[in-house]
Design goal:
155 residues; four-stranded antiparallel β-sheet; alpha+beta; two-stranded antiparallel sheet; single chain
């Protein structure tokens, strides 16, 4: 380990050359209500629109737990398109998926952003170290194979 050196300049250079790799995807933190019946989903949606508490209806009716933090592209396209077009605090109409109907409440929206160098420098250092280590290991193994004499004996 001591013979492989990765300089801070190497880390910075890699970060700058691979800037697109260090963006976080747009994401939303959401709560959801999942029911299997379309009429129940529609009834819940109407109640929420009339001012009923989402959390109370969720406790009473939802058959699945919250999805929580979801990044763009993790859900099926139709749901992804709906939830990422809602504003914070808005709810979706009932959406059919996974053998039932979801109603989503957008608690928080986070836009795509670039991670700072300080956040990823350890990852980059380890990545560059592994690349150099593997290259040196391959060189050593190739050298050993070239200079070795191997005899295969029949058993």
């Amino acid at each position: 380990r001591s013979k492989i050196f990765i300089s801070p300049k190497d880390v910075t250079k890699y970060y700058e050359e691979h800037a697109d790799d260090f963006y976080t995807a747009e994401s939303v933190f959401l709560e959801n209500i999942f029911v299997r019946d379309k009429d129940t989903a529609q009834n819940i949606y109407v109640q929420i629109k009339e001012g009923a508490d989402f959390a109370e209806l969720q406790k009473k009716f939802s058959e699945k737990s919250n999805l929580g933090l979801v990044h763009r592209g993790e859900m099926i396209k139709d749901i992804d398109d709906v939830i990422f077009n809602l504003k914070q605090g808005e709810i979706s109409t009932p959406l059919e998926a996974s053998g039932g109907y979801y109603i989503f409440l957008i608690k928080e929206k986070m836009s795509s952003s670039k991670k700072e160098l300080v956040e990823v420098q350890a990852y980059i250092y380890n990545f560059l170290f592994d690349q150099k280590f593997n290259a040196r290991l391959k060189e050593l193994l190739d050298k050993l194979k070239k200079n070795s004499y191997i005899v295969y004996k029949d058993a």
